[in-house]
Specification:
- The chain is α/β, with parallel strands linked by helices.
- The chain has one domain: Rossmann fold.
- It has 13 helices and eight strands.
- An eight-stranded mixed beta sheet has the order 1-2-4-3-5-6-7-8, with helices on both faces.
- Strand 3, helix 1 and strand 4 form a beta-alpha-beta unit.
- 45% of the residues are buried.
- The model has no long low-confidence stretch (mean pLDDT 97).
Length: 278
């Protein structure tokens, strides 16, 4: 597995899938092994791109840092810049999933001249200072009220328990349908997750006001891809995030949740290919 040297001398791992112009894919979690992305529905082949997928610090083949602040999104954005330099790219085409979108947004705010195109898949919106209100949250939860798993998953969703068991119990909300593929994907979460890194990522304060102000000046195309049934961001918040950018747009994958490539791999790959080329 290839590696690159980051700003502090750490050797961080990445993989390359496919051939063609590179698309750097920053994983979410936060601090979840990039293996959870799979092949993103065959995106490399459909888009004709080389997917460059790093293992963020403390995940996969990348070592755990001694300094826990290195898990924070702003420090991971520094790692992203080191990866760009290592790849010898003047500008990046960049895709961020979920919490990985926060890293991409902070990177774009700091280095707008280094971003050619940005795709945000079911993104966290916190870095842009956007959140869902209580009424919208309840409405999105209620979309799944007819599912046979709803009662147990809803109880887990409402719990303050931060255990892996609780996350597994609420996992049906993260998928458009609780299929065998979805259940197998959800079952990998605990083994792939660096919980210390997850907590450290979430504990870093981010100046969302300053970040959003910088993002409004970004002229590069930004496309937000959301799942119709995802709890957050959902279509409305996805549109709101897209409107932050001068050249922003939102695409909704029908019937999908937080991991749209698991729900419908072929459709996801086509949608992302369209936003990369449109």
């Amino acid at each position: 597995m290839p590696t690159f040297t980051s700003h502090d001398g750490s050797e961080l791992a990445y993989r390359v899938d496919g051939t063609g112009d590179p698309l750097v894919v920053w994983p979410g979690g936060p601090a979840r092994d990039a293996a959870y992305l799979g092949d993103l529905g065959g995106l490399a082949d459909v888009a004709g791109r080389a997917l460059v997928v790093p293992d963020p610090r403390g995940t996969g083949a990348s070592p755990r840092p001694a300094d826990l602040t290195a898990y924070g999104p702003s420090r991971l954005a520094d790692d992203l810049e080191a990866l760009r330099t290592h790849l010898g790219l003047e500008r990046l085409e960049l895709l961020g999933h979920s919490a990985g979108a926060s890293v991409c947004l902070l990177y774009a705010a700091r280095h707008p001249e280094r971003v050619r195109r940005l795709v945000l898949v079911t993104p966290s919106t916190a870095a842009a200072g956007l959140d869902i209100d209580d009424d919208e949250w309840e409405a999105r939860v209620a979309l799944r009220s007819g599912e046979p798993w709803f009662a147990a998953a809803h109880a887990a969703l409402e719990s303050d328990d931060d255990s892996p068991a609780r996350r597994q119990a609420m996992s049906p909300f993260l998928y458009g349908a609780w299929t065998v593929a979805a259940q197998q994907h959800a079952a990998t979460d605990d083994a792939q997750r660096n919980r210390e890194g997850t907590r450290a990522f979430r504990s870093e304060p981010v100046d969302a006001t300053a970040t959003r102000a910088a993002l409004t000046a970004l002229v590069t195309p930004v496309r937000v891809v959301v799942g119709e049934l995802d709890l957050m961001p959902g279509p409305d918040l996805g549109v709101e995030l897209a409107e932050v950018f001068a050249d922003g747009g939102c695409v909704v994958q029908p019937g999908a949740g937080h991991f749209p490539w698991v729900d419908d791999p072929e459709l996801f790959a086509r949608l992302v290919t369209d936003v990369l080329t449109g």
